Amino acid sequence: MIKQYIILLILIFNNHYCAWSQNQLKDKIYYTVAAKNGLTVRSKPSISSKKLGKFSSGEHLEFIEDTKKFLSVMDNGITIDENWFKVKKMNHNWDNKSTLTGYVFSGYLLKNESAPYNPSDAITTHNSVLKFKNFNINFYFYKIDDRYDNHHIVKNDTIYAYEDVFNDLGDKLIHIEPKVKIDKVELFYTFKEKIWEYTIDTDDSKGYSWEGSSHFKKLSLDRQMILFPKIEHEKTEASRELNLKLRDTLVHYPGEMGGTTATMSYNGKPCIHSITDIVLKIILHHSNGTKEVKYVNINLSYGC
User: Fold this and answer.
1) Cβ–Cβ contacts within 10 Å for residue 239, how many?
2) Among candidates 283, 270, 276, which has minimal Cα distance to 297?
3) Pseudo-torsion of CA 90, 96, 100, 106, nearest 10°?
4) Between 199 and 69, the higher pLDDT residue
5) For the chain, what percent of residues have pLDDT higher than 90?
């Protein structure tokens, strides 16, 4: 009987601890460094205090404290008024370095929607840049595949690029950097989706069914920087499945390569639905009153 009570107490404690741990993780606040040349970390919330190091642009930080100590900074003619925050570097499982902790000016931080995530915790420290004639678009801690000669294909007003494996654009910093004088920059995004017939035939084009995208959504830039929203694949796919009246089904293929597979049906045929690309729309408002519209199409990676 005593043994049963001990086991019961252990189970109760374990459940409470797990719930507490999940709440602690959920309650944490994260920011991303949005300073082109990085953000200095200091020993105290003062511009005259000792420098401890620097956080790179695009790096994720865990919030510790708002000191309520105010600082005003002039940056390229723009006044930035914010407080000093105490933060620490968000370490990942593969990172054995000591955690850098200190005070930073919060005017160069962007708040994350939730705890930053990367598949397999395999976050890259690589930055990427796509170049147009009148501006560059920089991606921080996000790698675009450059293993092939034609990894950046330019067609008319669009650059086509490929996301490197184990990357995820969600919660990554994007910086649009004009090379000419402009009045304003606007950034929009949408997802490209495809449905094709499920078949063991290697010729995918034979079973092609549907391709489309939703309306462009506008992103609010802060000094021409933005954290790209988290890509909610399941939510988007569930919405599309409802709109296209997709249904769960089982498909059986005979022969050596055959078997029974769970998939969906579209217009009575087995199909696969996938979010295949992100499309960015960039509008430059030039000082002479003209507008310039460009696009970036990034083909998404889902692992190896």
Assistant:
1) 12
2) 276
3) -20
4) 69
5) 40
Beta bridge partners of 191: 278
Q: Output the DSSP codes for 151-175.
A: SSEEETTEEEEEBPTT---TT-EEE
Three-class SS of 206-267 = HHEEEEEECCCEEECCECCEEECCCCCHHHHHHHHHHHCCCEEEEEEECCCCCEEEEEEEEC
With a cut of 80, say whether residue 20 has pLDDT above it: no
Q: How far apart are CA 45 and CA 51, in angstroms?
A: 11
Strand, helix or coil for residue 95: coil
Residue 248 has pLDDT above 50, yes or no: yes
Distance between CA atoms of residues 112 and 212, nearest Å: 29
Q: What is the set of domains in the chain, with CATH numbers?
A: 2-111 (2.30.30.40), 120-299 (no CATH)
Q: How far apart are CA 104 and CA 33, in angstroms?
A: 10
Q: 249 or 166: whose pLDDT is higher?
A: 166
The pLDDT tens digits for 292-301 are: 999 999 988 8
On whether the CB atoms of residues 134 and 194 are closer than 8 A, the answer is no
How far is C-alpha 222 from the chain's CA centre?
16
- Cα angle 200, 205, 211; round to 5: 110
Q: Which residue type is seen at 252?
A: H
User: 209 versus 81: which is more confidently predicted?
Assistant: 81
Q: Angle at CA 187, nearest 5°, toward 183 and 193?
A: 160
Q: Report pLDDT digits (tens) over 39-63.
A: 999 999 999 999 999 999 998 999 9
